[in-house]
Amino acid sequence: MDINEYCKKIDSHLAGITDTDQRLEVTAKILSQAFRVGTDEVAIFVLDGEKDLLHFMWPRKLKTIGFLPLSSLDSLAARTVRDNKPFINNRFASVHHASIFERVRLEGAEEKPQPIQKIISVPIPGKERLHGAIQISRKGEVADTTVDFTKYDLDNLAKIAVTLARHLE
Fold this sequence. Notes:
CATH architecture: 2-Layer Sandwich
Helix content: 25-40%
Order of helices and strands: HHEEHEHEEEH
Number of helices: 5
Number of strands: 6
Structural class: alpha+beta
CATH class: Alpha Beta
Radius of gyration: 15 Å
Number of domains: 1
Shape: globular
């Protein structure tokens, strides 16, 4: 299936869901299946433009405990929104970043939290300004155990973000 067809299916599926929490959960599942990662490796941020903060919308547990200032130099999500540009980093574990949220034990997790090894991050477009960011990561203890993200993955996530933007506002 090509990405445009996939986005049409996502759009149609999400259009029938009115509950925000359910829509976020379905979105996380769609993204985790598309990129072959766990739902805990999907992060969705929404921008509070008045306060210049990014709030976690997914994972659900992080929604209640954290936010990121848009001015943060250690946050790839903040940089993605500030620069309005997608990023790919297959050596993320070796780069200084805001890692505090990686240490949170997420809902349903039986094992200890794993560090992010590789990540792709794209802005979520909005009508007047950016709506937020979506990140897909690959977690694990050793970088060699995870598959690299590709430019193709990054481009596909950016296209999916355009579709998801209509359902995350």
